[in-house]
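Consider the following input, taken from an annotated entry for Peroxisome assembly protein 22 (Lachancea meyersii CBS 8951).
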Amino acid sequence: MSSRRSRNRLSGLLAAGALMALVIGVSYAWKKSRDSLPSSRGEKSERCSSVCIVLTKDIYESGVDWDRLLNLSAVVIVPPGSTAESGSANFPGHQIIKCSTEEGVWSVVRHLRKDIVVVSPGQLESLPEDIHRFSKPLTKVP
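Applying the prediction step yields:
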């Protein structure tokens, strides 16, 4: 009698486990298909890119639209020896990162992993080889 009861309990547990696995798989597939569909407002296709700007003298002199950068979720990196931060008085301080070395600038770019990094290649040392894995380098503010 006890062996029949243990078999019934085992088959019940197996059936419950299989049912739970099926429910989890179906809910995962449903969520995955729902996320892949474009939203009705088109948020994914019109999403603003996040921007990281290495603020050199060239970029600063070309004119920086600080209000537009706020809307782009931009972070400004000030490289060593740069004095081009005077016009950023109304830009939030927590979005300005001052670096003391060139290596520090690229380390910040790697860790932020923004979609785009705006850099003036003439002012800075050459771009590191691996920077393309983290951000897309551009020479003009988008």
